[in-house]
Amino acid sequence: MYRILVVDDDEEITTLLSQYMERFGFEVHVASDGASMHSQLKAHAIDLVVMDVMLPGVDGLTLARLLRQQSQMPIIMLTARAESYDCVVGLELGADDYMGKPFEPRELVARIHSVMRRQATAQADTSQAANVRFDAWTLQRLERQVVDPQGTVVPLSYAEYRLLCTLLEAPRRVFSREQLLEQARGRSMDSLDRSVDLLISRLRHKLGEDGPSLIKTVRGAGYMLDARQIQACVA
């Protein structure tokens, strides 16, 4: 079963989560700050990190960014401030899911299973991934970046990459905001409706002057990718 690291300085929460998740067969390890988190990661082969945003010393968002630079290990963020901006920052930094406090432990268990299923699917897809050319742009899936018509590499954040992949899978299909986040995160996130607008805006900016024409807003419905040609390619 999965080995989970819970990073939270609230001992009551870590004890509750440990006892509850162990009932489902999880092996649970606990850390209260960044230093103890790194110690646990070195000592155990952790499969997924559940991390609070508000931590003593280095905050959870910074730790998530540092962890994502070193590993693709799934991360679920916990926060008492489930506002769109905070959630967008977490997703941009590479968090796989976001839960606002208070929450039901059984929902966290369900989220862990969902994230791990997506992780397994993503690893299978990456192992046979081809680059994808859409009009004059190329998405390099292994590197999680796009190459513009002049050959310039444009890095994508984790969230931007996931959104672009979702749009590329069904060109000219209109996705609602809820559908985009559900496709990218594996669940509905109605309360974060406006966060999609921010992510779409950033992705369009990365695509330069082609951004608005490639990713179109369908008023009252959502967004769609309007590329004239999409094909898999080797380079």
Automatic annotation (TrEMBL):
TM region positions: none
**Keywords in UniProt for this one?**
Cytoplasm, DNA-binding, Phosphoprotein, Transcription, Transcription regulation, Two-component regulatory system
Q: Does the keyword Transcription regulation apply?
A: yes
- Residues in the DNA-binding region are 129-227
Q: Where is the Response regulatory domain?
A: 3-116
Q: What InterPro entries is this protein classified in?
A: CheY-like_superfamily, OmpR/PhoB-type_DNA-bd, Sig_transdc_resp-reg_C-effctor, Sig_transdc_resp-reg_receiver, WalR-like, WH-like_DNA-bd_sf
Is DNA-binding one of the keywords UniProt gives this record?
A: yes
Q: What is this protein called?
A: DNA-binding response regulator
Q: Where is the OmpR/PhoB-type domain?
A: 129-227
Taxonomic classification: Bacteria, Pseudomonadati, Pseudomonadota, Betaproteobacteria, Burkholderiales
* Species the sequence originates in: Comamonas terrigena
4-aspartylphosphate modification sites? Answer: D52
Q: Name one GO molecular function term.
A: phosphorelay response regulator activity
This protein's major location comes to: cytoplasm
CDD domains from the UniProt entry: trans_reg_C (cd00383)
Which Gene Ontology BP annotations are present? regulation of DNA-templated transcription
The cellular component terms of Gene Ontology attached to this UniProt record, alphabetical and capped at eight, are: cytosol; protein-DNA complex
* Database matches in PROSITE patterns: OMPR_PHOB, RESPONSE_REGULATORY
Indicate where this protein resides in the cell. Cytoplasm
